[in-house]
Fold each of these.
Amino acid sequence: MAWFKTQKKPLTSEGRRDLPADVFKKCDGCGEILYRERLVRNLHVCPDCGNHFRMPAACYVELLTDPGSFEETGADLVSDDPLNFADLKPYPTRLRTAKEKTGRNEAVVTGRARIEGIPFALAVMDFAFIGGSMGSVVGEKIARAGRDALERATGLVVVSASGGARMMEGIFSLMQMAKTSAVLARLHERGLPYVSILTHPTTGGVTASYAMLGDANLAEPGALIGFAGPRVIEETIKQELPQGFQSAEFLEEHGMVDRVVDRRQMKASVATLLRHMQAGWEGRD
Amino acid sequence: MAAHAPFERHIVEMENQISKLRELASKGGVDMSRELWELVAKLDTLRRDTYRNLDAMEQVQVARHAGRPYTLDYVRGIFTEWFELKGDRRFRNDEAIVGGWARLDGRSVMVIGHQKGKDMKENLRRNFGMPHPEGYRKALRLMKTAAKFGRPVVTLVDTPGAYPGFGAEERGQAEAIATNLREMARLRTPTVCVVIGEGGSGGALALGVTDRILVMEHAIYSVISPEGCAAILWRSADHRNEAARALRLTSSDLLSLGVADEVVPEPPGGAHTNPEAAMTAVAEALTRNLSEIDGADPEELVARRWAKYEAMGAWQETAGAGGAS
Ligand SMILES: [Zn+2]
């Protein structure tokens, strides 16, 4: 919910005046000034310290899918404004701005593809679209990706990046947690594998629904993952949180994620897991 | 009633006036029955008018009213043969959620609900009705026990939200809630939820994925508190009135949005003015809803539950073929 409170890593380079931001980017991890091109080639991971920058959703799709295998679905689904919601800005204005900024209709990309030959359904969230918040369209697209997996008897992979539920859709946004979990219940019962990948940041209603329900939960190094945002917790307990609290590594240590996986090994890891879990694909490598 | 909301001021003034008159009448032997009778009738009208015209934030205040019946009041008031079951078998017994066997209209049911405290001491023990992961895990354990014996589950929702604390995060608050959502979606037994006060976000929903959702007239159900929403979207909690209105969190909103199946009427003046009447109305609604779904084929129940939740939301498909709502 607190989608801009949790945004710790600014996307744009604060850079020095003499370094054009479109060519260079400063690493928050080690302070190194990096060639943007080199960073992109390295999957937005700092070659020096391994710091994982946020990666655009389209790049994540490319990362996890075999070349040319991705077929996007549901791209034309758009948010309604069921509550006629307006805060300082009307909700439709926020949607329009997000669409212009991302070139996308909503905060998740979905489709079907192959990964090392294995067919699967994929959803990748886009934090740049209203903080990756989950409204009706995100819920519906995740649900459809799940149904697609059910229909074709494949696995499902969801890459999460979200500040939580989208307040501007009120109770409907809350109900998307139940909706997506209901579809995952069906996958669970059919014995179809679901791999959840948690990236920076994943909090609120998305963590408290599909992001935590993987047969395997993988997390990117350093990702902030939690139910409540750190500021809300600090306000509640009137104490500063220790370094590394709610980090991917913290969650691994506390038994909430199976493994912290470097982005550069993500595709191979997901493929291995699907080979282990997806019927008909065991022992094929 | 010690605490009252600002909009209740006139009601409280008239109540005081009535009790003074009563005192006078009993002391002085003066016949004031006519004046009294008129005042009582006036008070009744005032209550009805006030409570019919509450704005969204006033509804929130009523939903949070400390005089409302809480889960254990319902347990004592409308159920019999209560047998509390404690603990998640993993960590501890979270007293922000209570649960156990109970009987309603002859039927054995598992009752599970958030529990706020009646005073500061009890609130510290019950964490103001804000559960930790172990509370949700206890709730799930009890739901599975109910399903094992083919008994319905009744959940009573009344929480500001899941507790956002250190230990809660450490022990997997998000995982506990998520697991409840998935497991409630596939529970092979009839389930009914009543929002009896505050339906606070994911911490409420974790007891709320049910065949039927009933909401009491002055209860609320929201993705975020009006204060939290105002602080984020308006950048100041001072805008909670606007936020409360915008969120559409009242019982009539929830009914018209198709999230609530039924609104349970409260006595004029709200459940806190006449808890007995409020609880009786809940008992009636629960009994009726349970008899409608109890005995149904569990597979059919679950299929219908999936269909209901999977249809929730509002979207459009731009390439022709209209969306759902
Ligand atoms: Zn670096």
Amino acid sequence: MTTTRRHFLKLTAVCGSALALGFDASADEPFAPNLWVRIDADGTVTLTVTKVEMGQGVRTSLPMILAEELDADWERVKLVQGIPSAKMRGLGTGGSWSIRGLFTPLRTAGAAAREMLVAAAAAKLAVDAASLRTEKGFVIHDATRQRLSYGELASAAAKLPVPASPKLKEKFTLVGKRTKRVDGKAIVSGKAEYGLDVRLPGMLYASIERPPVMGGTVKRFDATKAKQVPGVVSVVQVSRGVAAIARDSWAALRGREALEIEFDGGPHAQWSSADYIWSLHEAATKEGISTRSAGDSKTVLAAATKVIEADYVYPFYAHAPVEPMNTVAWVRDGKCEIWSPTQAPNDVQDRCAQLLGMAAENVTVHTTLVGGGFGRRLGWDYALDAVEVAKTSDQPVQVFWTRADDMQHGFFQAPSVHRMKAVLGDDGLPLLWHHKKVSTYHNARRPVTPAQIQDPEYNRGSSWGVYDVPYAIGAIETSYVYVPTHVPIGPWRAVFAPSSVFARETFFDEIAVAAGRDPLALRLELLSAAPEIVEAGSLKISRPRLRRVLETVAAKGKWGEQLPKGRGRGLACNVYDGVTHVAYVVDVSVRNDKVRVDKVVCAIDCGLVVNPNGVEQQVEGGAIWGLSSALKGAITIKDGRVEQSSFADFDVLRLDETPAIETHIVGADSPTPYGVGEPTVAPIVPALVNAIYAATGKRVRTLPIR
Amino acid sequence: MPAYKLTVNGREHHVDDVPADMPLLWLLRDRLGMTGTKYGCGAGICGACTILEGNDAVRACQVTASEASGKRYTTIEGLNDHPCQRAWLEEDVAQCGYCQAGMIMSACALLKRKPKPSAADIDEALSDNVCRCGTYPRIKRAVQLAAKLGGGR
């Protein structure tokens, strides 16, 4: 998900009445234009959006970047959602990579189109191109007060060569401007179409009863009663269970309820998450794969007088987006058409084609709006459900999951145990830092290979927040111990960072307490040492930039202020993926063991900011996501099955529990934008836990907080 | 199967061939083609399917077709430049947007009951609605703004 390849451009123009540019944003593949800018004779600018909108605002921010360089009229930019094909790859949306990856390609496309329009205008007016300027969809010749619209220039511009390296702007007018989400009106009027809202003529609805035990199978079933439910059209067995297909959703649900199925629990029918987490504790004595090693731990330990140790425990979580998984598929005449709320359109196309034994070009995937992604919809399992059911019918079929299906049969955030050790010197400064993460890799979408298990880089990839510890400490050892499980594990908002950063930043607070030092001052001191840039794996972490967010959040969050009894203030920070710097100050009140979050202050350096409104939304969302994970529900598994089934037993933060959240953006003068959707999640949890310690003297080492 | 008559957004609908226990949620979405009201849990826990019955917020997944018969409902599609919608846009509340129809309808019901709600009133009226994107701080502001825009009238 975190591709590091550099993006570069090859542009082509398509002639006709419109100016259309396609360009290739990938360096290591043959030329495949995956992003099209089109300017029609009526002046409409159409941008194919090659990322999925799931609330992170790409349908607003990506066009802003294009419109900026093109000097387009923002009101006349039209969006088309990219449809996956051999030529249109890279639609997968995750890892907080959309703006980070597309910023330069979009700017270049906009600038190239603008230069071609200017050249066309220069020829038409017989003036020097340098005497022309552009504004809101017009090329303007000030000396003669002539204005030519982009629409009337498009056809001539399309016949001109595409500039190889168009000049990019030095000053922005739209990028950086607080801009409202383009989908806002559709959403508040109920017109926005999510996967579950797809309606096609003659469409059927299906619901699948699955083996309740993970890895279980259907032994036998009797559909007699199900077929008697009015509206039920048919019952079919598919690889993940038995589907009732009906005329409407209710009949599908009723039909499913009436199914009589005997399941075989399979090999994991006794499995429990409590046992598994216990096995993580046991495995913490193993050596593991080293993910970073610096200094001489042996000598430091031999001479140590003050050693601090602690284990931190992180549970399973579900994604629980409010829109449950669903997909519509229509299989006919050797072709398949799919409508899916997916974060992985290319994968959906490829995997569904594979399942159907069709060439990928015969499978068309329409990506709908996504009612909450959070990594869950990087999986294609629910699209395969739809295709399997739909191939038994001539009609389009919508397969929809219930809330319980969604809680129990997706993939999960991995649990982990973190074994921490530090040695303090006589001056209270840490001399040694050990962080061992014991957990499991992602296994839901692709199997883990034996080579990956031994590969330090792969293990680093599963230990964000562990090996990239930013502090200047003489001896550092970080490692990863793999404990396999059959439970499907996959990406969740902020992926591997939340558990690791919870352990790291809480343990840091423990060290500060043990050393009798202020946690902010100790952080700043250990971030002021040379070198300024810490190299860990392939990441380069900037200590000065991390210091700056800490100093900002401390000032804005009134760090050091005395609070009344029962209240506490906590602090934590992180550098996500080596690029986005986030620090939080969290205020809590604790009364009768009940935690209330009073206030959250965030300072974030995510580089250049395209839409400050979008950054603030993601800070609010990331903070609330993190607080939910710390204070509310987790997933537990007993007798092989998930125990939770709804928001009643996997609760999430509610409106009345939500604190005021303040965002302070720093570092927006940077030339490059970085991600923001995920980086805001991880450090809120240790900041909260540290605030609870400040309020009560009780140290939380296990999530969720009970 | 019996036939039912209900009014949605001022328009009368006659529905037949529908079982008595079919939740209004599915009746709206699958039979009347109004998909603005969302399915989130089917158990009255998440609030995504909140609509108005008269002036009161109800969960469309918890009202059966037979109970709905003869009653008047307003769904998100029935709002037209409503102060809540304007306030939601002004505060740029939505992220993924999926839960927002339920949030807006809950807010409408609150404002009809209490045109000038306190922070505690807003907490009480909207804390049974789940949002996973984390739009709650903006919802609080939007409800206050909608009240100022006359959302209770």
